[in-house]
Amino acid sequence: MTFTKRVAAAFLPFVLLLPLPALAQESCTITAVPGQDEPEYARPDDPWIYRGTDIPIDEQWLFGELPNGVRYAVRENGVPPCQMSLRIAIDAGSIHETDEERGWAHLLEHLVFRESRYFGNGEAIPHFQRMGAALGYDTNATTSPTQTVYKLDLPNATRQSMDDSVRMFSGMVIDPVLSAENVALDVPIVLAERRERAGPARRVQETTTSTFFAGQRLGERMPIGTVETLQGATAEGVQAFHSRWYRPENAVVVLVGDADEEVLAATVERYFSDWEGEGPLTPTPDFGDPVAPAGADPDNPVGEVAVVVEPGLPRTLSYGIMRPWVQIVDNMEYNRRNLLLDVGAAIINRRLEQRAREGGSFLGASVGRDKVSRTVDGTFVTVAPNGEDWEAALADVRGVIADALRAPPSQGEIDQAVAGFDVAYTDFAEQSRIQAGSALADTVVGAVDIREAVASPETFLAMFHSLSERFTPEDVFAATQALFEGEVIRAVMLSPDGEGASEAALRAALERPAMANGDARQDAEAINFADLPPIGQPSMPTVREPLGVLDVEQLTFANGVRAMLFSRDNEPGRVTVRVRFGTGWRGIEDDEAVYAQLGQMALVSSGLGPLGQNEIDRVAAGSKLGFEFRIEDGAFVFQGLTRQEDLENQLYLFAAKLAMPRWDEAPVERAASAAAIGYDSFNRDPNGVLNRDLDWLLRDRDPRFATPTPAELQAATPEGFRRTWSRLLQQGPIEVAVFGDIDRDAAIAALSRTFGALPPRMVPSPDVVDRPMAFPAVGSGPVELLHAGDADQAAAVIAWPTGGGSQELPRSRKLDLLGQIISIRLLDGLRERAGAAYSPFVSSTWPLETESGGIIFAMAQVDPALVPVFFDMAETIVADLAESGPTDDELARVVEPVRLNIERGSTGHTFWLNQLQGSTIDPNRALYLRSLYSDYVNTTPAEIQLLAQQYLAARPGWRLSVLPENMESPPAAAGR
Fold it and tell me: Do residues 706 and 696 touch, judged by C-beta distance below 8 A?
């Protein structure tokens, strides 16, 4: 997330040389060959996605239409270099299913990867892994109510590999083998996925969907389907669904890559032109419209409401103002209306947040507009009450909304909201030339789904600037009123106990007139950073020297602060500031776990210097600033994404939090209340239990990692929070990393006025610095925990300790490969063969600050009866790897994606920041960066075998099972 420094330091003067294409990249752009790459059906003069709109055409895209109806979009893009991104979008999802077919669109998605025209059974995923495409990251598919999308991001694409991949993917989608045998193999996998996603969250989602979209197809068709319809799937039925909807007229192919657009277009035409549909085209079904009940009040048309009682889950409620979805013409005026609606919603959300911060009756609330699955154009309001009085919270939120509907906002509120959008859109435009091809492809697929055009970031920014100048209070007021007009209001409340919660009470609360409350209106003027108190006396660095890696510069200030600067202009307008300070989890005392959790929730919002959270919002208006906080094993971390013109202000926020922390009580009390309300939800399914207890158990029940109970949260005080974090903010070293598009001299000057001006730090005691991370002793397991959720859900974890420390950084990389090999074997055994688990997971961690604490663990969600099967399989895999090692093919399937991820990732500055963080204090990190590539690429099966022997086979795996408390009998014991 401290070792042998003198030896490592001797090597630092050498400059890092890595065989990474990102560092010394020869062009890999595939150029068009005359006579070969000449697309026949490209239409640059009449792109299909822009018909009927006045949105300026983005000429970087080339659009075409094949005679069979396939539409395509291609674009040359070299981010990352050599990558190809393919998307095949089928305009059919769960909403297109009949009642008997529910879940079949998603089942078909699985079957497409099973076997097809060019792939034998189970060959597709390993094939693309060998080419460097990681499962789930580079090779994936998604099924929504309205669309099924197949995705391939192929790194290191050549003309041949791109051509082959498009050909093979086309065969998968056009001609899958939908045999009875394959359906029988994939149905259990989909049922396992359904089981993993079952439980309270899905029940709430299903009730919400059926209530909000009552009477419409969307309300009855979740993509995952039902057990009955999935078990009833037949080869003939799935084939009929495929024939009906997988037609060229329903397909859009997007291909973005490091190749001339003629090459890309010709490739699409080559493999999709001969696709023929069977019989006449089936029309899209009528999705239905939201309808108010007969006799409803036209000014307050409350329709369907529902109450879901789920013990343990926090009380929440949401309601939607529903309007029919209407096919629009995506033009300039439509986007102006959208922007006005967004500004109106942003102003209300800011007011709601201010009221929650002041200790109101709700912990949080929000307003948002969404066009859902071409079914509803809705405005949705969500409320999280602070306690049991949901009626007071709802009335409070409705009062803020009623005030927004009573009178226009101030121009100052509009300007603050517009400034936030301006920063976001300006940043997007500045980043346009480094947009990843995968994101560009996804943008077109998304636009097709919602039936809108695409605009370049530069076009959208120019449009925003031309329109936002006309955003008057009257315009925003009219848009805000439109947000809350609709055909019908529908609502759902989630209650943990059912007390005071009924459909009648919820309906009555919504029908009751809202009393406007203008207390949350914000008319205060903006705050200027120049008016804030200085951190201290500015001090320039006493030492400026190369870090020894690339052209990273290391700075040392007289107060002990160290900094790293890395300037790269390939990401215009993007700068990451990461401040690592103190000792992280090592510095937290055994009785401070509650304040550790509250710190991650409330430390930032408790303010700094003269600024509370509301004032921080105002001072940041119009700036690109971030303020994230997290705790790592060896350091606390502040991080923000900014730009050069805002860099000094970003540094000021971080330095001021250390130099002059503010201790507002309301954020701490709000965080404690939210954590206490949510605590019981941990017990509702296996994942929740793992989120609550796994870290604590893997750390041998170290009290620092225990999730605080409601009683402990109730006993926590703002004074205890202040006492704990005052100490932690003052002690331990500071490293500031500034990476990205920076002016180095200006950055150094900004550092001198902020971090260089801090007072010297307190030195933590040696027992804090050297505190080890423990792992459960042999014989301390197995551990069995219970959950109160569904009886067919369980989770199993098996884990082994490894080690830690930066002097063994190369070893940690090879252990990561070992974990990935175990993962693909588990996936093959549990998912592909047995259908027992949808997504078994293996993780290898290796802390750099301590010589202990590293862990390899495997986890799967399974049927309770299959928990012993998981343990047996994991131990068998480990024993085999220790005895025989992995095959060459297995190693290639994990090494190649990692190798290519390094090459792709190294084009961005955050890749280098993640590798080098901590290097000013621990030189091993910079030293071993030079071997990053070879540590992975040159790993041999024998090395993996030796690691399996040393760390896994040498001791039994520690076991944890999470079982349903209402099981009739525990699963039979198995294994050692």
Answer: yes
* Residue-level pLDDT at 837: 65
Cα separation values, 405 from 299, 395, 402, 511, Å: 13, 15, 5, 17
CB-based burial label for 305 (10 Å; 0-12, 13-18, 19+) = buried
Q: Is residue 10 part of a domain?
A: no
Helix (H) / strand (E) element for 47: namely: none
User: Sorting pLDDT into bands at 50, 70 and 90, what band is 1?
Assistant: very low
Separation between Cα atoms, residue 948 and residue 930, nearest integer Å: 25
What is the residue whose two structure tokens read 């075409």? 64
pLDDT attached to residue 525: 76
Element (H, E) at 825: helix 809-826
pLDDT in the model for residue 7: 27
Q: State how many domains the chain has.
A: 4
Q: Is the CB of residue 870 less than 8 Å from the CB of residue 821?
A: no
Structure tokens at 45: 């003069």
Give percent above pLDDT 90 in the chain: 86
Q: Where are the beta strands (DSSP E) in 28-81?
A: 62-65, 71-76
Query: Residue type at 90?
Result: I
Verify that 796 and 755 share a domain, yes or no: no
Domain match, 231 and 86 both: yes
Q: Are residues 405 and 498 in the same domain?
A: yes
* Rounded average pLDDT over 436-451: 96
Contact, 712 vs 594, CB < 8 A?
A: yes
Measured in degrees and rounded to the nearest 5, phi and psi for residue 238 equal -65, -35
Model pLDDT for residues 144-160, shown as the tens digit of each residue:
999 999 999 999 899 99
What average pLDDT does the segment 4-23 reach? 33
Please name every residue paired with 566 in a beta bridge, in sequence order, or none if there are none.
739
Residue 561 backbone phi and psi in degrees, to 5? -65, 135
As given in the structure block, the two tokens for residue 666 are 């309301």
Report the C-alpha gap between 696 and 871 in whole angstroms: 21
Strand partners, 798: 858, 959
Phi/psi for 910 (5° steps) reads -70, -25
Strands 734-740 and 575-581: antiparallel
Band (pLDDT 50/70/90 cuts) for residue 452 is very high
**Considering the domain boundaries, does residue 870 fall inside one?**
yes
Residues 357, 260 within the same domain: no
Comparing 20-24, 387-391, 458-462, 605-609, the range with the smallest average pLDDT is 20-24
| CATH code of the domain in which 724 resides | 3.30.830.10
Residue 121: C-alpha distances to residues 2, 88, 114, 126, 186 (Å)? 49, 21, 6, 11, 11
- pLDDT score, position 926: 97
Phi and psi at 861, nearest 5°, equal -95, 125
- Are residue 239 and residue 333 in the same domain, yes or no? no
Name the packing angle between helices 159-174 and 104-114 (round to 10°): 140
Q: What is the pLDDT of residues 166-176, one digit of tens each?
A: 999 999 999 99
pLDDT at residue 363 greater than cutoff 80: yes
One-letter-per-residue 3-state SS of 453-468: CCCCHHHHHHHHHHHH
Question: Which amino acid type is present at position 411?
Answer: Q
Q: Is the pLDDT of residue 226 over 60?
A: yes
Structural domain includes residue 1: no
Question: Which residues of 479-607 form beta strands (DSSP E)?
Answer: 488-495, 543-546, 553-556, 562-567, 575-581
**Residue 221: domain span:** 77-272
Phi, psi (degrees; rounded to nearest 5) at 190: -65, -40
Structure-token match 């070969």, residue found: 36
Decide if 251 contacts 90 (C-beta within 8 A). Answer: yes
Mean pLDDT of the chain: 93
> How, if at all, do strands 251-257 and 71-76 pair?
parallel
How far apart are the C-alpha atoms of 475 and 964, rounded to whole Å? 55
- Position 791, amino acid: A
Please write the tens of the pLDDT for every residue from 860-910. 999 999 999 999 999 999 999 999 999 999 999 999 999 988 988 888 999
Q: Is residue 454 located within the same domain as residue 533?
A: no
